[in-house]
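Sequence in, structure out. Go.
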Amino acid sequence: MGFETLVVSKEGALGCISLNRPEAMNALNAKLVTELIVALDEFEKDDGVRCVVISGSERAFSAGADIKEMADMTAIQMAMTGHFFPLWDKVGRYPKPVVAALSGFVLGGGLELAMSCDVLIASETTQLGQPEIDIGVMPGGGGTQRLTRAVGKYKAMEMILTGKRIGAEEAKALGLVSRVVPKEAYLSEAKKVGNEIATRSPVAIRLAKMAVNKAFEMGLKDALDFERELFYLLFASEDKTEGMKAFMAKRRPEFKGK
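Output:
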């Protein structure tokens, strides 16, 4: 299908999605959210896509939710429609790896979208924040939870209660982004990381992602047990056999995702 608010393409094993509302600094509205879910669904069904890269523009990954669309919504309307929440659930539980390519403004719902991804590559110009407090609300798409897990209670409190933004280097130091690169390289770097992931076993990648995510949901003992069960399970995969044979033969493995 054609998209009005996204630019969607395939580059080898990468599914590439670019937010495309330049007139609104890629603010998230219902149309964009719906289209993004559709694009992710299509890439999930495509076995040729092994990793997804989500980007915005150099000026803004996303400046947050479209306030014009939300301003007159009631609590009941918000609760009954779910508004953007299906998107956070979709990205946060997505079975394939998702790399976020960040530049410029990454604010509010834009930061929540980025934090739902698995690897965050940031341009040196990136500004990250949860400024919802400035308009009389609070983060509602996972910001209070994911930001706290990423940077700790006290920095998260400061950012959420003051609306203060942080730059890319501070975000990296806090563990909020994976790496920082020059602004002209942020998208190519994200695709490079995506391609590195895409060469690995899709089965092992999927289970490893599940295990890391469980680290934030379980106590240590249960999480270790979960990790071990997934480790054993991978010994039943064809990719495990191929990977070990290739290692012993000193050749590149050809993973099939089986």
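Check: The domain at 202-249 is CATH 1.10.12.10 (Lyase 2-enoyl-coa Hydratase; Chain  A, domain 2). The longest strand covers residues 6-11.
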